[in-house]
Specification:
With 557 residues, the protein is α/β, with parallel strands linked by helices. Helix content is 64%, strand content 6%.
Length: 557
């Protein structure tokens, strides 16, 4: 077993890094053992294979003053640099490759909270532990001079003079460091972030329109072919009007899912997503929110279930629960097909803008929700946490990007083959019986259900069919699209929808709880009471916002 000592200044994050690395090592079945050490003298007499020094980039000189003492006790050493975003806030930057060269110690940048650089750090530690001890450290010449504290300090000061650069003297900064200054500046970073999001949604609609049309044409051809070779009856109606209509409508959005998550994967793997969190961290603190909450919220745009689970890393229990309650406001990928269907149909000239507005409304309401909850007895407290790490830019790898896309597409296809398929069959059955005539919907079982809830939904501009669609969306939001396809024959322009009712409908889909799996996860992570609270407050808020938009909009349209 490789035994690794972890050492660093107090509050340098060595404890959290130790636990994170040990956890990854255990999962990956790496034969590693991590032990925290508080002082270089504690290394004396112990058989450690390698030492990991955790360096606080906001206290570089103080942190690096430990390095010569560590090398006095242990020749095999790796440096892990953290809290780099806080260094950027002071308008400084650090040339890490040059630091590594001058000090002669392998160096990596890690982030426990952002889960960045940890596997790479493990690999470096194992590599250093496996190779023979080296006498090539530039710092070894200090031993020959019988170096004291002043000599060490002068040496460290010389290294930082060569590697630490103030923003006003940027001639030694790399191109990426200069780009980072722009992207993390709140005045320039936020507009850039909005422009990138606009471009992503524009590409999602524009590039995805062609394969989406091909899939729709293929489903239509298959339906017509099946209608021509099969006798009329309940089975042919089930297959054509139920399964093909419902599943085909959702399947058509696979290209859009691929394109969207291609861009999301690029932003995550390149390190830009962490910079979005860094920008929003400052904004969130100004309204009294938890700085670390934004990362689970970002994950919520993919799926709310793992996003809620990611909030486990927040140590304060009040902040942890509040973050979990904020996650359902984020538009998960399951809502995306609903948005695309309505935006593509009713907002032809402003697709990307309407999409961004939906995401912005969700984020804004989550912030307002958190501000209100922070003032209640359950969540009232002071909070000083910040986003502590900013990973370096890196080139996305095609293999990782493909894996991320496939993971999301596979999840989407799995829902189509399970939840959406069964939802389509159930909706068809409720529509087909007892009249056995799809042209007589008013006397079907589905109409009875829809008309029961219709009085509550009419003030929002929804008829009974729209109300039924919202009910079928409880297990999975994609089922709304399949239900619309079954009820309206794939053409929602004939369904009484207007741009106003369409936007009101999308707002309701945005705000009422994402799916049953999200509520189940919230119940497990935060408790039964908060799970039921989310169900009722999300339904009430969805109804209230949709009601206000429809009623106010009706005065002007």
């Amino acid at each position: 077993m490789t035994k690794i000592a972890v050492i660093g200044l107090a509050k340098s994050g060595k404890s959290s890094l130790t636990h994170a690395l040990q956890g990854i090592a255990d999962v990956e079945k790496r034969d590693l053992q991590f032990v925290e050490v508080h002082h270089p003298d504690d290394l004396h007499g112990h058989a450690y294979d390698v030492v990991l020094q955790v360096v606080d980039s906001t206290r570089l000189e103080e942190s690096l003053m430990l390095t010569p003492h560590i090398i006095d006790e242990q020749e095999k050493i790796v440096i892990a640099i953290g809290r780099y975003d806080l260094l950027l806030k002071t308008d400084h930057s650090l040339n890490i490759p040059k630091l590594e060269q001058l000090i002669g110690v392998p160096t990596c940048r890690v982030s426990v909270r952002l889960n960045y650089g940890l596997p790479n750090c493990l690999s470096i530690l194992q590599e250093v532990a496996a190779r023979p001890a080296s006498k090539a450290h530039p710092i070894y010449h200090l031993r020959d001079q019988e170096g004291d504290e002043d000599t060490y300090r002068a040496y460290v000061h010389g290294i930082l003079t060569e590697t630490l650069t103030h923003a006003k003297d940027d001639k030694h900064q790399t191109r990426l460091e200069k780009i980072d200054k722009v992207l993390t500046n709140p005045w320039s970073g936020f507009p850039i972030m909005m422009a990138i999001l606009y471009f992503v949604f524009w590409c999602t609609f524009t590039l995805g329109a062609y394969p989406q049309e091909w899939i729709e044409s293929g489903v239509d051809w298959l339906s017509e072919w099946a209608r021509g070779v099969m006798d009329e009856g309940w089975f042919s109606s089930l297959l054509i009007d139920g399964v093909l209509a419902g599943v085909g409508a959702v399947l058509a959005f696979v290209p859009n899912i691929v394109i969207l998550f291609f861009f999301i994967s690029l932003m995550e793997d390149s390190g830009y997503m962490a910079r979005e969190a860094f920008i929003m961290d400052t904004i969130m603190h100004r309204v009294g929110l938890h700085g670390r909450s934004f990362v689970p919220m970002l994950m919520g745009f993919g799926c709310n279930v793992p996003a809620i689970m990611a909030a486990r890393d927040i140590q304060n229990p009040k902040d942890r629960v509040l973050t979990m309650l904020m996650v359902p406001f984020m538009s998960c990928s399951a809502r995306l097909p609903v948005y695309m269907l309505f935006v593509d149909t009713f907002f032809e000239r402003h697709k990307a803008l309407v999409m961004i507005s939906l995401y912005a409304i969700g984020i804004s309401l989550s912030v307002l929700f958190a501000i209100i909850m922070k003032r209640t007895k359950w969540f009232r407290q002071d909070n000083d946490d910040t986003v502590n790490e900013l990973p370096e830019f890196r080139m996305p790898k095609a293999r990782n990007t493909a894996a991320h896309i496939w993971e999301r597409v596979a999840d989407y296809l799995q829902k189509i083959c399970t939840v959406i398929l069964w939802a389509s069959i159930i909706i068809w059955a409720l529509e087909y019986f007892p009249t056995q005539d799809l042209n007589d919907l008013e006397h079907s079982l589905l109409a009875s259900i829809g008309q029961f809830v219709s009085p509550l939904m009419e003030p929002l501009g929804f008829d009974w069919k729209m109300s039924v669609c919202l009910i079928t969306g409880l297990p999975a939001k994609e089922a709304i699209v399949s239900t619309l396809a079954i009820l309206y024959g794939g053409d929602i322009t004939t369904a009484g929808f207007t741009p106003l009712t369409a936007f009101s409908f999308m707002l309701f889909v945005l705000l009422y709880f994402p799916c049953v799996a999200t509520i189940a996860t919230l119940r497990r992570e935060a408790g039964k009471g908060w799970a039921w609270f989310t169900v009722f407050h999300s339904l009430f808020l969805a109804w209230l916002i949709s009601f206000a938009v429809y009623q106010i909009g009706s005065l002007f349209i």
